[in-house]
Write a structure and sequence with these properties.
Elements (H helix, E strand, L loop, with lengths): L1 H19 L6 H6 L7 H14 L3 H14 L4 H16 L3 H14 L6 H13 L10 H16 L6 H28 L3 H14 L6 H15 L2 H15 L3 H12 L11 H10 L5
Helix pairs in contact: 3-4, 3-5, 4-5, 5-6, 5-7, 6-7, 7-8, 8-9, 9-10, 9-11, 10-11, 11-12, 11-13, 12-13, 12-14
Amino acid sequence: MAGSKISASVMAAALAGLVLTGCGGNRDAAQRQNLDRFTAEEIYKRGEFELENSRRPADAVIYFSEIERLYPYSEWAKRALIMQAYGNHKAQNYEEARGAAQRFLDAYPGDEDAAYAQYLLALSYYDQIDDVGRDQGLTFQALQGLRTVIEQYPDSEYARSAILKFDLAFDHLAAKEMEIGRYYLKQGHYAASVNRFRVVVEEFQTTSQTPEALLRLVEAYLALGLLDEAQTAGAILGHNFQSSPFYQDAFRQLRGRGLSAESRGDSWLTNVYRQTIQGRWL
């Protein structure tokens, strides 16, 4: 027992020495020197140690990537590959995390860690969604990855988290449409704003953005003089979100024009209203 502790201590010290010999641009190369003298398990354990104790998770990734190089097709290489994905994600090297996760999925699609690899792949997109104003391509990629987790691994421990994040990412896309729609509305481009708010009502109706989208439709249609559409938007808002402050605002605006919140005319909103009453929407 004592002998094994000494052996482990010596191994850790030897591997740690590889880190201390390098600095700056030579750090990565120094870490890789002479790693072939150690077993895959020893290198793996050093990588785990770095992940747990270092402030630079990228340092740990070097050990895991070397296992993949030195001991390909081994069980340790498989384990190291999923740890590369995790370590790169922790280091916010998202592209590298995606690459490692995808390689794992390609090589071991039926492995018990495949669900986690897919989850990390989705997270590498999701965690880059930092504000509404960014390019929404990342959001679409996150939604696609999260949907894969939900549909292919519904019984995994990651499914529930994927569902929650999917809903948030979906709301994020709706928020982007609202941001653009509000801009057009403020600039007096009412028809353009209607197109954005319509997308929210028709395609993102389960998100938290829908009540405001209906209010802004009331405002835009009133400005355009399309009173039937404004009243119908108000009716949908009142039917589904009567306690919302957005409905109270819409009700005041309609009443101020001598109008009521009721379905009138024949438009896309009329169809939405009928669907709502029949219980097929919201």
